[in-house]
Amino acid sequence: MLIGIWRGAGVYQSDEGQGWNELRKMIRHEDGKFEVSYLLVYHGDKQYEVTFDTGKWSYENGKYAEVDGDNQKSIYKVYSVKKDWFEYNYIQRGDNVTIQETETVKL
Questions:
Q1: CATH class (in words) of the domain with range 4-105
Q2: Residue ranges per domain, the chain?
Q3: CA distance 34 to 36
């Protein structure tokens, strides 16, 4: 269900009160690999950053996980998975980071 090209957005807050908006393009393949590109726009600094990553993804028992190119694992609590909608929360950052994605292209 999550295989395809998705676009997403999230808003993050740091412990110091600064934060950033994140826009992403996520490509999930049937073999469990992913490629993602991010545009990060930092609040108050008028700075932005573009990053790319690859890795492996999995989804089971209400948890979505990614292992990136540096072998760092991120685990997410899934709120909603539909045909063209995916909403989840980054567990390691608490309940204040919800990410929403919509499918743009089926692979």
A1: mainly beta
A2: 4-105
A3: 7
